[in-house]
């Protein structure tokens, strides 16, 4: 199933922010920053990535509902994708 690029813009923005956060985390480690600060940033980027994944799945589900004649993805496949984020 192909996702609409316009609908994915918010996911792309979220992933670009996460990319920046990861760069910041690497820099924090290289600078010898406090473990608590690093873990806090790791948790934030992890949550951002999870939310991006859920947004992709939600968009896919919406596409399946509004365009049932498109490429088929059965419930088991969608569930497997969703659970892979857990």
Automatic annotation (TrEMBL):
InterPro entries: Metal_Tscrpt_repr, Metal_Tscrpt_repr_sf
Domain of life where this protein originates: Bacteria
Keyword entries, A-Z: Copper
Pfam family, one: Trns_repr_metal
Gene3D superfamilies named among the record's database cross-references: Metal-sensitive repressor, helix protomer
GO molecular function, one term: DNA binding
Any single biological process term in GO: negative regulation of DNA-templated transcription
Family to which the UniProt record says this protein belongs: Belongs to the CsoR family.
The protein, known as: Cytoplasmic protein
The species this protein was found in: Intrasporangium oryzae NRRL B-24470
